[in-house]
UniProtKB/TrEMBL annotation:
Name assigned to this protein: DNA polymerase III subunit delta
CC terms in the record's Gene Ontology section: DNA polymerase III complex
GO molecular function, one term: DNA-directed DNA polymerase activity
Superkingdom classification of source: Bacteria
Biological processes, Gene Ontology terms: DNA-templated DNA replication
Gene3D superfamilies: P-loop containing nucleotide triphosphate hydrolases
Keywords: DNA replication, DNA-directed DNA polymerase, Nucleotidyltransferase, Transferase
Length: 376
């Protein structure tokens, strides 16, 4: 699946082309690669390959690098050894990214084994590699005869067409609804995307609820958009307590998506990540406010605080809402207090602590005493 036109295709279109190519394969291509950070599309691509393998009577061996029982030496041995009994064999290798990173001219053992696998005359053996962080110019990606990139969908519309209905995510909701034969109007697709966030598996579940529901669509759709701890931290420091509280409650209720695509629901993990993000953000605000108080220009203050490039669009309204160093110092002290409480209990802090923090910061808005020279 090489070629500029295919690289430019949207992820759903690329997946459709991948499915057509795999469905026509007899036997399967020797090396297939699915790379990218959208777990939903990667999982569907794997299903396409394994379903075709079953239809062609392949033995399927799934080797997951996150499995504590999975050993690299075992995988290398299996790739190098033809099967004794199965006439056809498919390996599915996923979560081995760390073992395929190349440095200099020396090839990692797994990369060398895959290249050797492809070089041998064994048309009835195939490998599907799933990699989250593999680049298009990686040796394995360039060697693969079937190569699919599965990035996350854009949940904002393109700048040349600012209609929210034009975002890739909303367009995909409409497309997926048609595939599942669910009657969803364009505005309803926008509502489902807003209610769910950029979680395609969860959108599938929402569409199933709509399909089996008997009332209004909005009665069937559960509002569960959670975002990430970094998004929540951003809302907490924008000086809008209501939005910050809503974001905190949604995060702890719905969790976040981990690097492996799984749902992280552990409150201790969520609070630790959120505290870390809050601490970094408030440190930046304090540094910018102190630079301005010391007589620096706005642009120089932003630069000293590490807010450059596109980040300026976020930081300007933040600093308009809280101009004085004393405000940011109080915020930093509050976050430091929560961090100490988290370390002392060993169990993190809960949603109530962050709600109280948002209300406390809201009450403190507008206060402006001279900044204390207490630096973190």
């Amino acid at each position: 699946m090489a070629g500029s036109s295919k690289r430019a295709a949207t992820p759903p279109d690329a997946l459709d082309a991948f499915e057509r190519e795999v469905a026509a394969a007899e036997p399967l291509e020797r090396l297939m690669v699915v790379r990218g950070d959208e777990e939903y599309f990667a999982r569907r691509a794997q299903e396409v390959v394994t379903n075709r393998a079953k239809a062609l009577d392949y033995e399927i061996l799934v080797r997951d690098g996150t499995d504590p029982d999975a050993k690299l030496d075992d995988v290398l041995g299996e790739l190098a050894t033809p099967p004794m009994f199965a006439p056809r064999q498919l390996f599915v290798l996923r979560n081995w990214d760390a073992n395929m990173r190349t440095q200099g001219k020396n090839l990692p053992p797994l990369v060398a084994a895959l290249l050797a696998f492809c070089a041998r005359d064994q048309p009835d053996r195939a490998v599907l590699v799933r990699a989250t962080s593999m680049r298009a110019d990686h040796k394995i990606a360039k060697t693969a005869t079937v190569n699919l990139a599965v990035r996350k969908l854009y949940d904002s519309p393109p700048p040349w067409k600012p209609d929210p209905m034009a975002s890739e995510l909303v367009q995909w909701v409409r497309r997926r609804a048609r595939e599942l034969e669910v009657d969803v109007a364009p505005r309803d697709a926008l509502y489902i995307a807003a209610a769910t966030g950029n979680d395609l598996g969860a959108i599938d579940a929402q569409l199933e609820r709509v399909r089996t529901g008997t009332g209004l669509l909005r009665d069937s759709v559960a509002w569960q958009a959670t975002g990430t701890p970094w998004d929540v931290a951003d809302k907490l420091v924008t000086a809008d307590a209501a939005k910050g509280i809503d974001a905190v409650v949604a995060l702890f209720a719905g969790g976040m998506t981990g690097k492996d695509g799984s749902r992280v629901l552990d409150p201790t993990a969520l609070s630790t990540i959120l505290l870390s993000s809050l601490s970094k953000t408030v440190r930046q605000g304090l540094a910018i406010a102190e630079a301005r108080a010391a007589g620096e220009t706005a642009e120089r203050a932003f630069e000293l605080g590490g807010a450059t490039g596109r980040a300026l669009d976020t930081w300007r309204p933040r600093m308009d809402a809280r101009k004085h160093p004393a405000q940011w110092q109080r915020m930093f002290d509050a976050v430091s207090e929560l961090e100490r409480a988290s370390r002392s209990t060993g169990a993190g802090v809960g949603v109530d602590h962050f709600v109280a923090l948002a209300l406390r910061w809201e009450r403190q808005r507008g206060r402006s005493r001279p900044a204390q020279k207490v630096r973190p």
